[in-house]
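Hello,

Our lab assistant flagged a job as stuck in the queue for most of the afternoon. It eventually completed. Since we weren't sure the result was trustworthy after the delay, we are filing this so someone can double-check. Below is the sequence as submitted and the structure that was eventually returned. Let us know if re-running is recommended.
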Amino acid sequence: MNAYDTTKVAKNALEESLLAERAKLRGEIAQLREAIQEKERDARAKEQRLAHVDALLATEQPSVVDQAHRRQRARSASTPTEQLLNLAVTVLRERKGEPMHYRDLADELMRRGAVIRGQDPASALVSRMTQDDNRRAEADRRFIRPTSKGFYALREEYPDARNVGARRRNRGTGQARAE
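-- returned structure --
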C-alpha cells in the first residue's frame, strides 16, 4: 500500500468514526428530548395538583387556635401608619412644647427613616395625623394646632388649647364651617 492509499483509508476510517459519533449524538439528543417532554408532563401534573391543594387550603376555615394567634399578632404588631405617628409624637416631644410646621415635621420624619407614602409626603402626614385623631376619643387625641394653621404640637403639652382653624358643624344644616 502506498501513502495515498494509507491516507485514503485513514480518511475513510475518520469519516466513519465521525458519522457514527454523529448518529450516536443524534440518538442521545432524541432520548433527552423525550425525557424533557416526559418531565414537562410530570411538572404540569404536579402544578395542577398543587393548584388543587392551594384551593383546598384557601377554602378551609382557620381553627380557633389560628384565629386567636392571628388576633394576638394583629394586636402586637403596629401598622406603618402607627409607627409613623409614634415617631411624630417622639419628634414633637423632643421639641418640649414648641409647635413644628408640618412640612418640617415630615422632613424630620423622613430624615429619621420614616416612609410617608403619597404624592406630597407632608400633606399625607397631616392627613394621617387628622385621621388618627378622628378615630380617637376627644381625651385620647394626640395632635393639635395650638398657635396657627400648619403648626402642630402634642395635645398633652397644650391641654386647654383648641385647634386653630378647626371645623365645627352647624347644628341646623350639619355642614362644616370654619372657625
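-- support follow-up --
The delay was a queue issue, not a problem with the job. The result is valid. The chain has a mean pLDDT of 82. Residues 79-178 form one domain.
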